[in-house]
Amino acid sequence: MEDVVVGRLDLGQRVDEALAVQALAFGLDADEIAIRRQIVVRHLSCPGARSLGATTQDGRLVGFVYGMPNDRAHWWSTVVQPYMRQRGTEQWLDGSFVITELHVLPAFQGLGIGRQLITTITDTAIEPRSILSAIDVESPARHLYRALGYQDLARPVHFPSATSPYAVMGAPLPLRRPDRPRGPA
């Protein structure tokens, strides 16, 4: 397997490459990619938005993550809020860094790249916790999130136009590491 380096990613310049990774990792079609491109570009203008990429020695993008401090006025937050309120976890929407997208090409999954991307980006967060949403099935992604300290905050969550239910998950920062105890609650 090629050496992969995680570092700063100018997502605005490489949005099409990132969406190609997401399409393969997440199974998106061309119409979904076009919609998500507009969303990513809009997110990049949000205060505190940042991204990281995983690249091979020759500069090929094989994974990426981006996120931002949560804002209750953002679409995602307005959709998950009623589900979280019902579960008594709505307070997690404040003071949280949202992992908006995290994707790794299938051929590079299971190598620790996703773990390195999410821990590196959350290590730079000033917020005391992190939240994200993931398809509500037992998957390698959900297993990774739990290993890092994420717990279910609301499920099932139904996003408009999504065919599968999601789970909203949250973890105190810093994220759990095999050699590091869990961060403060």
Characterization of the model:
By secondary structure, this protein is an alpha+beta fold. Helix content is 31%, strand content 28%. It is built from five helices and seven strands; from the N terminus they run E-H-H-E-E-H-E-H-E-H-E-E. It has a seven-stranded mixed β-sheet with strand order 1-2-3-4-5-7-6. Helix 4 (113-123) links the parallel strand 4 (96-104) and strand 5. Helix 1 (15-26) packs across helix 2 (30-43). It is globular. The protein starts with a strand and ends in a 13-residue tail after the last strand. The relative contact order is 0.15. The mean pLDDT is 94.
Give a topology summary.
Blueprint lengths: L3 E5 L6 H12 L3 H14 L6 E7 L4 E9 L5 H13 L8 E9 L8 H11 L5 E7 L4 H8 L3 E7 L8 E7 L13
Parallel strand pairs: 4-5
Antiparallel strand pairs: 1-2, 2-3, 3-4, 5-7, 6-7
Helix pairs in contact: 1-2
In short:
With 185 residues, this protein is of the alpha+beta class.
Secondary structural class: alpha+beta
Distance between the termini: 38 Å
Query: How large is the count of helical segments?
Result: 5
Give start-end ranges of low-pLDDT stretches: none
What is the strand arrangement across the widest sheet? 1-2-3-4-5-7-6
Largest beta-sheet details: 7 strands, mixed
Helix content: 25-40%
- Specify the overall morphology: globular
Overall pLDDT confidence: 94
Report the order of strands and helices. Answer: EHHEEHEHEHEE
Radius of gyration, CA atoms, in whole angstroms: 16 Å
Strand content: 25-35%
Number of strands: 7
